[in-house]
Design brief:
seven-stranded mixed sheet, 11 strands
Length: about 130
């Protein structure tokens, strides 16, 4: 059974930083691309960032480009999202997800992912 457990969310002021972590189990982590998505109240879930199985390729939403960095540590079965220069519009529940296919690229599409974490709340105060 695949499990994804996010951590690292919290309350931060505008301009601050947070690092989210997502620990994976139940699948050979190093063979699968990973993604981060977020959902704000009243809005649809949206893509934030993704990373290929090898870590060599990444993909970012325009809204976070240059502020957020996705990375992975295959030895620890963990993917990270470093978030800098946070803005109130970054407030959302953040979810990590693992792709359904082996050796995938850094997809932006939710249908490419088959397991999701429970989410971690990120709140950025003005």
């Amino acid at each position: 059974q695949v499990q994804l457990v996010e951590s690292g969310g919290g309350l931060v002021q505008t301009g601050g930083s947070l690092r989210l972590s997502c620990a994976a189990s139940g699948r050979t982590f190093s063979n699968y691309a990973m993604g981060w998505f977020r959902q704000a109240p009243g809005k649809e879930r949206e893509f934030v960032a993704s990373i290929a199985w090898s870590g060599s390729y990444t993909n970012y939403a325009d809204s976070v480009m240059g502020r957020f960095t996705i990375s992975r540590d295959n030895a620890k079965n963990t993917v990270y999202l470093q978030m800098n220069s946070l803005k109130p519009e970054d407030t959302a529940v953040y979810y990590c997800a693992i792709q359904k296919n082996l050796y995938g690229g850094p997809s932006r599409n939710t249908y490419a992912y088959d397991y999701w974490g429970q989410g971690t709340q990120v709140t950025v105060s003005p």
